[in-house]
Design goal:
With 390 residues, this protein is α/β, with parallel strands linked by helices. The chain has 14 helices and 14 strands. The chain has 2 domains: 198 residues, 3-Layer(aba) Sandwich (Rossmann fold); 170 residues, Glycogen Phosphorylase B (Rossmann fold).
Length: 390
């Protein structure tokens, strides 16, 4: 029986993150082709780890005792982790490994060296960002981290192939490994589109952003300026932020909120479990992805977009990464200039004034895009053939 082992440092048990959600969609593809799927996380591993069913058709190595997230104390565990995996998976041509990237780059390096070079397995890599461009620190630590990530990219040469989430990341990683395919953001959207809430002019217009809250990455300074403009024009706005926010980012955000006098407008809603996110998003009138084209944003492809479309709520976004390869301005989404708070405000005010006529059409068209380009089942043959029909 063909088997794929998906390995990472992120937890797979009781974790509703976007990364786990994407890997679960991969698993559904593999299961449909008769492939056994095993999830294995370094953080859920211990010597007493046993195989248990994660969901129908998939297994995971899991030990409830493994809870330490300090990787510096776990370096010795990586090789033991890999040895245990290879002992428990029958060695044959039809077993391969897929690595979901870690911020702890030594993990990815040791995985390919041990599994591919020493043990001879076929090993593939999932590429959803270029990690060196996620570094914000300008000091010595940031420089060392940048060098470390840059050096680890050399080891991508040894992988049997790379699965890339965007066209730009595919081009970038082709410098290290020519065998790659592109699998964009994924949904399991239904062909049925239901706009849950229409808008009444005497109510607040609810705008939402979901995911890890990062002022710079999400271009929130410019976007909050647009919210100030809308408020000054007399629009009643609520801007709901769903997601984890660090103390540093919270401080930056509160400074902007105070400076723009938006205390009664911006609401930090906290982190929402991924399986509850759709319900929260559907309570809003507009979902936003106001990012600017930093190297990090240009090389990735935000999974927010697939979550937003699946919620059947109009989406406002910018020309970043692969967004406009799929979304057509004023047809399947609202496109604004990332550098202009006035353009954001104008686009939103036009939507508010015409919401009940525009929103159903935009969400219907966006869902058609999702069904045609993002539905995970569209990539069944492409992904299976890339991994198993070498």
């Amino acid at each position: 029986m063909k088997t794929i082992v998906i390995i990472s440092t992120m937890r797979f048990v009781n974790n509703n993150s976007a990364g786990v959600n994407r890997m679960q969609k991969y698993a559904r593809i593999f299961i449909s082709k008769g492939v056994r799927v095993i999830f294995a996380s370094l953080l859920e591993f211990n010597q007493d780890a046993t195989l248990l069913e994660l969901f129908p058709g998939t297994l995971t190595f899991y030990s409830p005792r493994s809870s330490n997230t300090n990787f510096k104390d776990q370096k010795y565990k990586i090789i033991n982790f890999l040895k245990t995996l290879t002992k428990n998976v029958n060695y044959e041509k039809n077993v391969l490994f897929l690595v979901y990237p870690s911020t702890y780059n030594l993990f990815d390096v040791l995985v390919v060296l041990y599994l591919k070079i020493i043990k001879g397995y076929r090993v593939f890599f999932e590429a959803n960002e270029v990690r060196k461009y996620t570094i914000r620190s300008k000091g010595p630590y940031g420089i060392l981290k940048y060098i470390s990530y840059s050096l680890s990219e050399i080891f991508l040469y040894f992988y049997n192939g790379i699965i890339c989430i965007s066209e730009s990341i595919e081009k970038y990683y082709s410098n290290y490994n020519k065998k790659n395919i592109r699998i964009p953001i994924l949904t399991d959207s239904s062909s049925e589109v239901v706009l849950k809430y229409f808008y009444s002019q005497n109510e607040a217009f609810n705008i939402a952003l979901a995911g890890t809250i990062d002022v710079e990455k999400e271009n929130l300074k410019v976007f909050l300026l647009s919210i100030r403009i809308l408020s000054d024009r007399g629009y009643k706005i609520k801007f709901n932020l769903f997601g984890k926010v660090s103390d540093l980012e919270k401080s930056k955000l509160y400074h902007l909120i105070k400076m723009l006098n938006l205390n009664s407008v911006v609401v930090l809603c906290g982190e929402v479990p991924y399986d509850k996110l759709q319900d929260k998003l559907q309570e809003n009138n507009l979902l936003v992805l106001p990012r600017k084209p930093t190297k990090q944003n240009q090389l990735g492809f935000s999974t927010k977009l697939s979550d937003y479309i699946q919620a059947c709520v109009p989406v406002l976004l910018t020309d970043v990464s692969d967004n406009l390869k799929y979304i057509e301005a004023s047809v399947s989404g609202i496109v604004a200039d990332y550098n202009s708070e006035f353009d954001f405000a104008d686009k939103i005010s036009y939507l508010i004034d015409n919401y009940n006529s525009l929103a159903p059409t935009i969400t219907k068209n966006a869902n058609e895009v999702a069904m045609s380009h993002f539905h995970f089942s569209n990539y069944t043959s492409k992904l299976y053939d890339f991994l198993f029909n070498e």
